[in-house]
Write a structure and sequence with these properties.
With 186 residues, the protein is mainly alpha-helical. It has one domain. The strands form 2 sheets. It has a two-stranded antiparallel ribbon. Strands 3-4 form a two-stranded antiparallel ribbon. Helix 2 packs parallel to helix 5. It starts with 6 loop residues before the first helix and ends with a helix.
Length: 186
C-alpha cells in the first residue's frame, strides 16, 4: 500500500519546487520566508493557508518547525521532487534546495499560482539576510510575537496576518455567532 499524501503536503512539495526553479540562492532561510509569505498572504486574503504549515517566531524570523526538522532527513515524497544539499559558502555551510522535476500547477488555485509568481518575482535575487529583514518589519506577525511580546519560539497565529480591524471584526463575528448559538440552544 502506498503512502497517503494529503493535498496540503502536495502543495508544500510543489511550492518548494516552484521557488527552487524561479528564484536564485534558495537556501533553507529564504525558503522558509517564501513559504511564510505564501501562507500568511493567502490566509489574509482567503482565510486559509496554502501549505498548512505552522510557523514559529525564531531569532532569524518565522520558521516552519516541522519542515525545519524534516530537512535533516527528508521523507520519501521529496525523492524525485527536490534535493537538499549542504554547500560551503563564504558565510558558512548553507542548505540549498534544488528542484529535480517540473512544477505541477494542477494542485493550485489561480490565486495561489499568482501569489507563487509574485513572491518569486519580488524575491528572485534576494539572499537570506534580505529575506530575514523582510519578515522582521514592524507590525508584521513575527515582530509582534518575538520583539513586542517577547514570546521567542512561540507559534505565530495565522489570524495575525489580518489587519487589526479585520481581526477585530472576525473576533466579534465569532463572539456574535457563539452568542446566537447559545441563545438558540436555551
Amino acid at each position: 500500500m502506498g503512502m497517503i499524501i494529503d493535498h496540503e503536503r502536495e502543495k508544500l512539495i510543489e511550492s518548494v519546487k516552484y521557488f527552487a526553479q524561479k528564484t536564485k540562492k534558495l537556501g533553507k532561510v529564504k525558503l522558509f520566508k517564501l513559504l511564510y509569505f505564501l501562507d500568511f498572504t493567502h490566509f489574509r486574503d482567503t482565510g486559509r493557508p496554502v501549505t498548512g504549515l505552522e510557523y514559529f517566531a525564531w531569532k532569524m524570523g518565522p520558521v516552519p518547525k516541522e519542515l525545519f526538522d524534516e530537512l535533516g532527513q527528508p521523507g520519501v515524497d521529496w525523492q524525485g521532487n527536490c534535493a537538499f544539499r549542504w554547500v560551503k559558502t563564504a558565510k558558512g555551510d548553507m542548505l540549498t534546495v534544488n528542484a529535480l522535476s517540473e512544477f505541477n500547477p494542477t494542485h493550485f488555485s489561480k490565486r495561489e499560482l499568482r501569489l507563487l509568481r509574485e513572491l518569486s518575482a519580488e524575491f528572485r535575487d534576494a539572499d537570506a539576510e534580505q529575506m530575514v529583514e523582510e519578515t522582521h518589519l514592524e507590525n508584521l506577525p513575527w515582530h509582534q510575537i518575538f520583539e513586542v511580546e517577547g514570546r521567542k519560539q512561540a507559534q505565530i497565529p495565522y489570524l495575525m496576518s489580518l489587519k487589526k480591524q479585520d481581526y477585530e471584526f472576525m473576533l466579534d463575528s465569532v463572539r456574535d455567532r457563539d452568542l446566537i448559538v447559545s441563545k438558540l440552544r436555551n
